[in-house]
Write a sequence for this structure.
């Protein structure tokens, strides 16, 4: 089973990377009022049941993939 | 009476690059330094203090310090810290200790998104830990920083908790990187684990510039000697 983890800077947290991207897009003439930059982690899981897979990915997020102080995560599961 | 030379373990991760300077500085101040490779499972038996040096462990993959906290040596560091003996993380070492949960908060990309290399002035906020015990609260130290990710973050509740617990050790006099509360260094609740972005090991010899790192490393060695005597 495949899973995708979207890691985003939490709302309200200063995101210097997003601000730089925002400023650059404005400089290029795009009408953008904000940009936030996060990270995508694509996973190939050995698990076959969705509930078990989700629980496992949640643990991966807590233990390694994101820092809960500053990042939020969204988990997307897809059947291979 | 000869002064004891406490054993200080300086950890080496793949990508550490201030381990050599840390060793030179600590030896110059009277320590017996052992460089300890990250793949080890134990610290030398006579270890009286641990230093996690600066650098770019594991290429800063994922987040700074996020991978290093799983190094084989880290459980031994955690056990050592729990005994109350001194542990210091400098720069990348600070990032590792935060990711490992041994210190509060997290270090993020500098507000200006630029690598910062400069002598900065920090204020000693408290003398309630072994590392700043030689300083008067309010004293100013000039120490170099060199980092791209030194922007300390903690939410309001965490900052309030650190303030009430006297855990904010150092603040920048000017906010050089966007850190919440201009925080440059924090300790754990017990006061025996310190993390700081400035590099005290680069600031001990007047020939090379400011010497603001001296009292911090001397404080570390004072505590190491006291601990080594207590357990001898």
């Amino acid at each position: 089973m495949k899973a995708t983890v979207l890691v985003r800077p939490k709302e309200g947290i200063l995101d210097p990377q997003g601000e730089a991207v925002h400023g650059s897009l404005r400089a290029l003439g795009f009408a953008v009022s904000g940009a936030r930059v996060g990270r995508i982690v694509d996973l190939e899981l050995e698990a076959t049941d969705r509930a078990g897979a989700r629980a496992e990915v949640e643990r991966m997020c807590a233990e390694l993939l994101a820092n809960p102080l500053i990042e939020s995560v969204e988990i997307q599961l897809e059947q291979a | 009476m000869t002064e004891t030379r406490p054993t200080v373990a300086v950890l080496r991760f793949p990508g550490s690059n201030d381990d050599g300077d840390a060793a030179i500085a600590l030896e110059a101040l009277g320590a017996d330094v052992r460089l300890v490779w990250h793949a080890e499972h134990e610290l030398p038996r006579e270890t009286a203090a641990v230093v996690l040096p600066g650098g770019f462990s594991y290429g800063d993959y994922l987040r700074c310090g996020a991978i290093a906290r799983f190094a084989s040596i880290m459980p031994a560091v955690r056990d050592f810290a729990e005994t109350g003996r001194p542990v210091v993380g400098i720069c990348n070492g600070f990032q590792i200790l935060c990711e490992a949960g041994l210190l509060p908060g997290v270090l993020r990309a500098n507000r200006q998104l630029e690598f910062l290399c400069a002598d900065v002035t920090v204020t000693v906020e408290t003398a309630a830990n072994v590392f700043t015990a030689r300083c008067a609260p309010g004293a100013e130290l000039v120490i170099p920083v060199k980092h791209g990710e030194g922007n300390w973050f903690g939410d309001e509740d965490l900052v309030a908790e650190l303030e009430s617990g006297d855990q904010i050790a150092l603040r920048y006099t000017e906010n050089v990187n966007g850190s919440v509360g201009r925080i440059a260094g924090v300790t754990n609740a017990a006061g025996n684990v310190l993390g700081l972005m400035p590099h005290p090991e680069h600031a001990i010899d007047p020939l090379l510039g400011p010497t603001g790192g001296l009292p911090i490393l001397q404080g570390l060695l004072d505590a190491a000697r006291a601990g080594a005597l207590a357990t001898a």
In short: Helices of chain B lie at 19-28, 74-82, 92-99, 156-164, 214-231. Chain B is about 25% helix and 25% strand.
